[in-house]
UniProtKB/TrEMBL annotation:
The organism's place on the tree of life at top rank: Bacteria
Gene3D superfamilies: 2.60.120.200
InterPro entries per the UniProt record, alphabetical: aBig_2, ConA-like_dom_sf
Protein's UniProt name: LamG domain-containing protein
Organism in which the protein naturally occurs: Metabacillus halosaccharovorans
Domain Atrophied bacterial Ig: 2-42
C-alpha cells in the first residue's frame, strides 16, 4: 500500500498480506490514535467464471449451483416467462420483450473481465440491454444492441459512471445472429463484433468494486426489455485475447 492509500493486491496464488493502518484524530491541542488491522486478499486466478449454454435451462455449465432466475420487465420484478427453441446452437433462450434473466450476484468483482454472447434480436429498441451489470443504480455497464442517438444508435457498451460510450460504429441487424464481446483491463475497454475489434478506449470506469454486483440479461432497472434470442454467454475473470474472441465468434 502506498502512502496515499492505494492498495495493490498480491498476485493470484500468493498469500494474503496483513497491514496495520493508523488513524490520527486531533482537535485543538488534543490528539489520539487508533489502529486498524486489515487483510489484503490475493487476486483471483483468471479464467472462465460462468458459461450459460441455455440448453433448456438457466444453469451455468461451470458451476451448477449458479443458476439464473426468470424476471419480469425489470431486474427486480417477478412474473416473467421465457422459452427455449431449436436453433443453430442446439437450443437457445428466447426473450418475449416483457421478461429477463437475473444472473447470480458477484459474477464480476474486479477491474479486469471479459463478456461474450451470441444475439439474434427480433427488434432493436434504444437503450435496451442485452447484458447488464451494476454495483448500484449509479454505477453500471450495459451491452446495448441499439445505443442512444448520440452514437447514431450504434451497438455499444455503455457505462453509467462518467457516461462512457464504447461505440462500435455499427449496428447489429434484427433477425440475424451476431457475436458481441468486450474485454476490460484496468480501465482499457475493447469491443468486438463478430470477432473483429470495433472499439478500443481508455479510462473506462471501474464499476465492480464489490463482490455482490447485480447482473442480468435482457432487462435493467429502467428500459424496454430485449426481444429475441440469446445463446452461449461466457463471462471471464481477466481480459481474454483477441484470438480467443475470434474463436468464440466461430462457434455458431
Amino acid at each position: 500500500m502506498t502512502d496515499k492509500g492505494v492498495i495493490t493486491r498480491p498476485e493470484a496464488g500468493k498469500d494474503p498480506v496483513t497491514l496495520t493502518l493508523t488513524a490520527t484524530i486531533a482537535k485543538g491541542d488534543v490528539s489520539t490514535q487508533k489502529q486498524f488491522t486489515i487483510t489484503i486478499l490475493p487476486q483471483k486466478p483468471n479464467g472462465i467464471v460462468a458459461h450459460y449454454k441455455f440448453e433448456g435451462n438457466l444453469s451455468d455449465s461451470t458451476q451448477k449451483d449458479k443458476e439464473g432466475i426468470i424476471t419480469g420487465d425489470r431486474v427486480d420484478n417477478s412474473g416473467g416467462s421465457i422459452d427455449y427453441i431449436e436453433t443453430e446452437f442446439g437450443r437457445s433462450v428466447k426473450f418475449n420483450g416483457q421478461s429477463g434473466i437475473r444472473l447470480p450476484d458477484g459474477l464480476i468483482d474486479s477491474d479486469s473481465y471479459s463478456v461474450a454472447i451470441w444475439l439474434k434480436p427480433d427488434t432493436l429498441t434504444e437503450y435496451t440491454t442485452a447484458f447488464f451489470g451494476a454495483r448500484d443504480s449509479n454505477h453500471w455497464i450495459s451491452l446495448v444492441p441499439k445505443g442512444h442517438s448520440g452514437v447514431s444508435h450504434h451497438t455499444m457498451v455503455w457505462a453509467g459512471t462518467n457516461w462512457y460510450d464504447a461505440n462500435t460504429g455499427q449496428s447489429i441487424q434484427p433477425n440475424k445472429w451476431a457475436h458481441l464481446a468486450f474485454t476490460v483491463k484496468q480501465g482499457t475497454i475493447t469491443v468486438y463484433v463478430n470477432g473483429k475489434e470495433t472499439f478500443k478506449g481508455t479510462d473506462f470506469p471501474h464499476v465492480f468494486t464489490t463482490t455482490n454486483g447485480v447482473f442480468s440479461l435482457g432487462v435493467n432497472w429502467w428500459d424496454t426489455p430485449y426481444k429475441g434470442l440469446m445463446d452461449e454467454l461466457r463471462i471471464y475473470r481477466g481480459s481474454i485475447s483477441a484470438d480467443e474472441i475470434v474463436e468464440l465468434a466461430k462457434t455458431k
